[in-house]
Amino acid sequence: MTSSLFDPPPQDRSGDVDADAPLAARLRPRTLDEVVGQAHLIGPGAPLRVAIEADRLRSVVLWGPPGTGKTSLAQVIAGATRAGFLRLSAVTAGVKDVRAAVEQARARLAANGRRTVLFIDEIHRFNKSQQDALLPAVEDGLLVLIGATTENPSFEVNAPLLSRSLLYRLEPLADDDVRTLLRRATSDERGLPGVVVDDDATAALVAAADGDARAALTGLEGAALLAAERGAGHSVTVEMVTAVLAGPRLRYDKAADNHYDQVSAFIKSLRGSDPDAALYWLVRMLAAGEDPRFLARRMIILAGEDIGLADPAALQVAVAAFQALDVVGLPEARFALGEAALYLALAPKSNSLTRALGRADEAVARLGNAAVPAPLRDAHYRGAARLGHGRGYRYPHDDPRGWVDQQHLPDGLAPGDIYTQGEHGREPSLLRWLQERRHHQR
Prior knowledge:
With 442 residues, the chain is α/β, with parallel strands linked by helices. It has four domains: 10-169, Rossmann fold, CATH 3.40.50; 175-244, Helicase, Ruva Protein, domain 3; 257-346, Zinc Finger, Delta Prime, domain 3 (Up-down Bundle), CATH 1.20.272.10; 354-441, post-AAA+ oligomerization domain-like (Orthogonal Bundle). It has 20 helices and seven strands. It has helices at residues 23-26, 39-42, 47-53, 70-80, 95-112, 128-132, 135-139, 153-156, 159-163, 175-185, 199-209, 213-229, 238-244, 257-271, 275-287, 292-307, 313-328, 334-346, 352-367, 427-441; strands at 60-63, 84-89, 116-121, 143-149, 166-169, 196-197, 235-236. Helix 10 packs across helix 11 (199-209), helix 14 (257-271) packs parallel to helix 16 and helix 16 runs parallel beside helix 18. The longest helix is centred in the N-terminal third of the chain and has 18 residues, at 95-112.
C-alpha cells in the first residue's frame, strides 16, 4: 500500500490542513454549504447534492477545468458519507495500488458491511490496464468511484468504466463566486484574517483567475506576502496583484478540449464571416502556444472547403501566409497569419467544391470502373487508332467559341451531376458562359 492511499476515520474527515499549507488548501470547504459555485450540481435539489445528502452516491466522474472544486467535492463527500473513503492520485498510483484498494474495500464490506468510496484524482492519467482493473469492483458496487479529470472523459476514460459512472461537468466559477471566495479568505480564521484588499485589487484577481478558485487564492496569498514584505501591513493593492501575476492564464492543451474547441471556434468564425472573432481566436491560440503551422494549414483547408471559386485568390492568400511563416517565423509572421485570417473571414463563401467532391466520391463508388469514352482515350501509342481510341475527338481550340459539345463524362453521368455553381462572389460570373453553352446543348 502506498502513501497515496488513505482511509481517515470519520471524525478526522473535516479537511483541516496544516497552517503552513497553501491558502487554497486551507480554505477547502468542509460541508456542501461551504462549496462555492456549481449550483447546477449541488444547489438545493440538484442531483449530486441529493445523492450526497442521502449517502446514496453512485460512481461518478467529475469533469472540469482546474480550480472548479473537483477535489473539494470529493473531500466533502469524505466527510459526509458513512462509507469508507480511499484516495489515489493517478500521477503516482499503479495497478498494484488499485488492487490494494479493491482488497481493502472487500475486507471492509466483509467486516462491517460498509461500502468504500474511492477518489482518483486526475483519472485521465490512468492507462487502459489501470482503468480496467477498476471495472469489476465498480461493476458489482464494491467500490463507489469518484474520478476527477480536467480532460474530456469521452477521450480519456475507458468507455466501459464511463458507462458505469454518472458524468458531472463542473463549470468555471462565475466572477461573483470568485469574489465570495476572496472575501472568505480575508475573514475566515483559516485564511488571511485582517488582510484588506481594495476593489481594484479584487477586480484584478477575479480577472486573472478566469473562473479558477485556486488561481484567485494563490494570487491573493502572493499579493498579501508582497504587502507584508513592503511594509504595507495588511493592505493589498492592484499594483501588488499585478506584480505577482505573470499575465492572463490561458487554459489550453494542444491535445485536449481547449485545443479542439478553440480551433473549432476559429474555423467557424472564418466560415461565418466574422473578422473580429477570427482574429481573436487566432491571437488567443498563438498566445497559448498553439503551433502556428497548424493554424496556417487549417486556413489553407478552409480556403478550398468554404470559399473555393467564390474567391479563388483566397487559396493564394492562405498559402502565402503559410510560406511567410516559414520565411520570417514568429512573432513577425503574425501579420501574415492575421492578414490571411481577415481576408478569409471577409471573402464571399461557397461550398460548391465541397459538394462537388462529395458527389464525385459517390459517383466513383457507384460507377466503379466506368469506361472512358472512346474519343477521350489516349491515341498516341502504336495501335491505338486500330482500337478506335481518340476517334471523334473534337479539339476545343479549333472552334471559335473555344468550346465544343462532346461527352467527357463516362456513361451514367451528365453535366451538372457533379458540380453546381455557388451564388456568391466571383463564382457565378466565372461559370456563366458554361451555363449558357449547356443551355444551348440541351
